[in-house]
Amino acid sequence: GEVVMDGILEKMYQNFVFQTVPIEWENAGYPCLKPLPSWVEDFCGRIDFMGKWLHDGPRPAYWLPGFFFPQGFMTAVKQTYSRDMSIAVDTLRIASEMTNLESHDIKSPPDVGAYVYGLFMEGARFDRDTMEMAESLPRKLLDDLPAIMLRPVITEDYNPTNIYSCPLYKTSLRAGTLSTTGHSTNFVVTMVVPSMKEEDHWVRRGCAMLCMRDD
């Protein structure tokens, strides 16, 4: 007889029954801890974001979690600035500047750099009134961050003070392996967030930024 169901398809069927993402999809896709319904919604959101960028042109702000390789987008921002200013790209780094804007408030891109949105903060929050880090609100694990401006700067001239160097991860797992490009499969970059408290204060709280929720 003709085989219509093998072991792989049977495991995939079980994943659908228990609303989990099949391992074959995970291996071919991107790091994600979401259950299947949320995973599908996130996947469709990425296609929609890329489709609008393709058909409507450059966006006023970019959904950073929608990129398979966010570091590549940041490198592109540096390369664009490098060509415009005739500065060696190796001397540049990406500086992050917090704003109090939501993605729908941004109608045009900045003159230099790019706006990104869609990030979350775990272990603390960003106070839009004081424009600095603050303690998490009760019973709220993740804080929705406002838009962040990524601005290329010369590394030697960039020495911010009163900040917390906040690591950005793709998922809350906070662990990954080195890929063939030398980048981590989970850690993205360190974001600079204004803070009047010592960095140890936030380190002890395990404060970090995430590209996506687990639910």
List keywords for this structure.
215 residues; alpha+beta; 4-stranded mixed β-sheet; 5 helices; 27% helix; 24% strand; globular
Order of the strands making up the biggest sheet: 7-4-11-9-10
Report how far the terminal alpha carbons are from each other.
42 Å
The helix/strand series, from N terminus to C terminus, equals HHHEHEEEEEEEEEHE
Q: Total strand count, please?
A: 11
The secondary structure category is alpha+beta
Task: Report the uncertain regions.
Answer: none
Q: Roughly what fraction of the amino acids lie in strands?
A: 15-25%
Enumerate how many helices there are, as a single number: 5
Radius of gyration computed on alpha carbons: 19 Å
The gross shape turns out to be: globular
Structural write-up:
By secondary structure, the chain is an alpha+beta fold. 27% of the residues lie in helices and 24% in strands. It contains five helices and eleven strands, in the order H-H-H-E-H-E-E-E-E-E-E-E-E-E-H-E. The protein starts with 6 loop residues before the first helix and ends in a 5-residue tail after the last strand. 24% of the residues are buried.
